[in-house]
Design goal:
This protein is mainly alpha-helical and 105 residues long. It has four helices and no strands.
């Protein structure tokens, strides 16, 4: 997903403020809520066929995933599952970046 797909939520706050207290915690919570809303809108756009992500992507997979009863996941659950796949990728990318900076001559 690119920033041009919509208002890009700052994913850094999701893991930086997970154990924080006070304003940092509320900033992280607001960021997560904003991201869930944004991804939920993308899920709806996929289901309305306004956006067509490649098969095999998290957005495509969870937008079309069906429960045992054969119903599509509700929008909120699909959005949370997409974010549950993105958060660890973003978190580890920060540490990979530091590693590359450390070993770079």
């Amino acid at each position: 997903m690119s920033q041009s797909s919509g208002s890009w939520p700052g994913f850094g706050c999701h893991y930086e403020s997970a154990a924080a207290a006070g304003p940092a915690h509320w900033k992280g919570r607001h960021s997560r809520n904003h991201a869930e809303k944004w991804i939920g809108e993308l899920v709806e756009m996929v289901r309305e066929r306004k956006v067509n992500p490649p098969e095999g992507t998290a957005l495509h997979t969870f937008s079309w995933h069906k429960e045992l009863e054969g119903n599509l996941l509700d929008t909120e659950t699909a959005a949370e599952e997409v974010l549950n796949n993105l958060r660890p990728i973003v978190a580890i990318s920060v540490f990979i970046n530091f590693l590359v900076l450390e070993v770079h001559p």
